[in-house]
Specification:
about 55% helix, elongated
């Protein structure tokens, strides 16, 4: 097994551990970034091509085989499982993306946007 490599030292990363009063940011800029990402979130959730809703609907399959076609039934089960797994993974990505956007709004002090975003279905932009 390979030995772990040494990473950059703290001295080569100025500001890696800043003091509270050394952190400077623009609340307006954070809010604008969060709004841009929220619009992208709407695209990921909506009905446009590539969205969660679109892909989960378009990748569903129906079984049209007969009881004596074992290979068809196996294929159907595999495709159905793939659709379910894909939808679960995509849903998890959307959930985590929503949390990241909410953290940006929180950093900007916009707690109403955090509440709206984290409420069920709260993907509207302001």
């Amino acid at each position: 097994m390979a030995e772990p490599r040494e990473g950059p030292t703290q001295q080569s990363w100025p500001g890696l551990n800043p003091k509270q009063d050394e952190i400077k940011f623009s609340a307006d800029r954070l809010k604008n970034i969060a709004k841009d990402l929220e619009r992208d979130l709407e695209r990921l959730i909506g009905a446009t091509p590539g969205s969660l809703r679109h892909l989960s609907e378009e990748t569903q399959v129906t079984y049209a085989g007969t009881d004596d076609w074992e290979a068809g039934e196996t294929l159907y089960k595999s495709l159905k499982h793939g659709n379910t797994y894909f939808t679960e993974v995509y849903t998890g990505i959307v959930r985590e993306y929503r949390k990241a956007i909410a953290l940006l709004f929180a950093g900007a002090g916009d707690y109403e946007a955090v509440e709206r975003l984290m409420s069920e279905g709260g993907t509207g932009t302001s």
